[in-house]
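To whoever is on call:

I kicked off a structure prediction for a single chain this morning and the downstream step that reads the tokens threw a length-mismatch warning. I double-checked the sequence; it's 338 residues and nothing unusual in it as far as I can see. Pasting both halves so you can look.
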Amino acid sequence: MKSQLHLLTLALTAGFATAGATSAHAQSCDYSLNATYQVTFDAAWSQQNHPTDFPGNPHFSGLIGGTHQSSHTFWELGALASPGIESMAETGSNTSLTSEVNSAISNGTAEFLLSGGSIGTSPGSVSMTFSVTSDFPAVTLVSMIAPSPDWFVGVDGLELFQNGAWADQVVIDLAAYDSGTDSGTQYTSANSDTNPADPIFEITGYPFFGVSLGTFTFTKISSEDIGLCVDPLISGQSATFRVAHGTPQENVVLMWSTSLGSTVASSGSWCVDFGIDVALGNPLAQSLALGPFDTNGDFQVTRQVPPSASGLTIYLQAAEQNACPDARMSNIVTQVVQ
């Protein structure tokens, strides 16, 4: 591999000239990684699976939740339900909980509101697609069990980005929860406000007896797995390129192009899926650098931007060395050389 690294370093085109070696103590690139997930709610609540006093018109209210920081909670076992959780669990209304999520977004502890469809008749299924970033990696999502006094299913603070990587798929078995705000004990009990309210708890006895009501399946559709940060490109001056969130000691290649495109290739231990045009016949010609991430998963290199590049639009992307199908790609950085 040392000879390969040497060849790649020497193979820089006239577009960029070597101005500095890879730093062993790279400054961190704080780029927030993006991902897109699909969540599918498969409801298994049925007369067959839950025969005890099974109600007519079994259904679930519209999905509601948000993406947020790991330290923030919209609900949790053993805590009192917020007005939004109470309203969702008792009536299926998402208005109050939507306001709570939007307030958290305004306060900087949440990022995206999640709002999806309902299940008109259970068993049934509903899916929704949503975005999430590594700065707000936790997902909360809930739905009312209907009819019921104040029962719901959901997930609280599921982290989709852990240890520097996005989860490919997460399946959550759904238990029934009581929001602690209504004292009814049957599906169609009359309203009976619990005052003072009880903490949220799992219903392990009547009428569910610990039998799962279904699953939430979170499946990654696409993601940025490593982050690329680039100094402003100024002709005749040096620029530093930083890559973060990499696997410590694993190799990373940094490529440039003058056009976007789709370049997919697998060669030996490399599996790449670039969103920029790379000439597969001579990919080394578009390589800015190749080397290992440091122990923190960071990499940086400095290159000289030639005066002749002024006015060019440059697209840059990095890829980690992984065998297929585990391509780990960065975001695409677009810059016009000043």
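Update from on-call: the warning came from a stale cache, not from the record. Cleared it. Sanity check on the structure: The longest helix spans residues 95-107.
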